[in-house]
């Protein structure tokens, strides 16, 4: 697509305070993680190290705890058990280093907030410890909107935008602080194929140039298959983790679900057939990973 690249330099404070001496050290480190709501255990014994520049795809059926995992990483949900360090600190303490694209929520149509205002909110107005000039902020906001293909409606109230257009603005907002970790909750939902590619390429570029670690919750592995280093697959209170070739197999998923699940590869795409609990109102009610449109 050749979209503008949006990379902002790290401030000295960023490099110092929370950047580890070892540049390859995990930015997320979870040990013996357990998450339960009452008696219901979503996942247990979760051990997870995510390193700079790594792309972790989180898959699993509705209700398996994918969003909850992101909430744990953000410090908005407490672990039931285990320990977690994000950028070497307890979760929730380094939020400006974390970009978060929440699961899609539409803005009310009457909101007067413009697309550029929403992105502006993602900036804290400071860089290198100094306040940013208004013109600098404006340029940064313009660059971010341009990078996600949203420049044309920068001044449109967000409530008047379509779901896919709103989604692009939210992605620009999540990138505003040049995050070291990007947490994405189904960011491609509502996007047409062209804009899925735009966003996927943007995320890929950020990993390469800025070493941003990406945790990407999705029901659609195919649009990001070329980027994925590891898959974390959550289901039935358990999980499997490894490369796509290790996890996305009939034997691994059948073992995880405790029933026959078939994983087939067609034209470089992965299709999961017979995945239980995948027919609960999600876009892929046939239980197949990676719908036909990808
Ligand atoms: N604060 C909470 N208290 C109790 N139950 C909760 C809470 N938050 C989430 N749940 C439940 O935990 C389960 C996992 O929710 P979560 O949103 O993490 O699933 P998910 O894997 O992201 O699902 P989906 O694919 O549908 O987005 C759901 O059944 C949800 O209703």
Automatic annotation (TrEMBL):
Xref: InterPro entries: AAA+_ATPase, ABC_transporter-like_ATP-bd, ABC_transporter-like_CS, Metal_Ion_Import_ABC, P-loop_NTPase
Pfam families given in the database record: ABC_tran
Name this protein carries in UniProt: ATP-binding cassette domain-containing protein
UniProt organism field: Streptomyces inhibens
Domain of life of the organism encoding this protein: Bacteria
The keyword Nucleotide-binding belongs to this UniProt entry's keyword annotation: yes
Keywords in alphabetical order: ATP-binding, Nucleotide-binding, Transport
Region (Disordered): 274-294
UniProt keyword annotation of ATP-binding present: yes
Domain called ABC transporter: residue spans: 28-261
């Amino acid at each position: 697509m050749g979209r503008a690249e949006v990379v902002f330099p790290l401030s000295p404070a960023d490099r110092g305070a929370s950047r580890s001496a070892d540049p390859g050290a995990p930015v997320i480190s979870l040990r013996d993680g357990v998450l339960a709501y009452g008696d219901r255990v979503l996942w247990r014994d979760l051990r997870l190290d995510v390193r700079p520049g790594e792309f972790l795809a989180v898959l699993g059926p509705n209700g398996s705890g994918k969003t909850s995992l992101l909430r744990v990483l953000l410090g908005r949900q407490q672990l039931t058990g285990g320990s977690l360090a994000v950028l070497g600190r307890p979760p929730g303490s380094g939020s400006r280093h974390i970009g978060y694209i929440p699961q899609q929520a539409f803005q009310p149509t009457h909101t007067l907030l413009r697309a550029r205002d929403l992105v502006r909110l993602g900036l804290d107005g400071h860089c290198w410890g100094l306040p940013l000039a208004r013109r600098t902020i404006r340029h940064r906001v313009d660059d971010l909107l341009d990078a996600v293909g949203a420049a044309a409606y920068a001044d449109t109230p967000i409530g008047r935008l379509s779901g896919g257009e709103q989604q692009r603005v939210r992605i620009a907002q999540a990138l505003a602080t040049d995050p070291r970790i990007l947490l994405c909750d189904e960011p491609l939902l509502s996007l047409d194929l062209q804009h899925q590619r735009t966003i996927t390429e943007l995320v890929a570029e950020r990993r390469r140039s800025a070493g941003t670690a990406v945790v990407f919750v999705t029901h659609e592995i195919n649009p990001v298959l070329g980027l994925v280093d590891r898959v974390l697959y959550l289901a039935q209170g358990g999980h499997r983790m490894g490369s796509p070739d290790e996890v996305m197999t009939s034997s691994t998923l059948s073992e995880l679900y405790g029933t026959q699940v078939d994983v087939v590869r067609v034209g470089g795409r992965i299709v999961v057939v017979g995945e239980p609990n995948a027919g609960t109102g999600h876009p892929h009610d046939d239980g197949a990973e990676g719908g036909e449109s990808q």
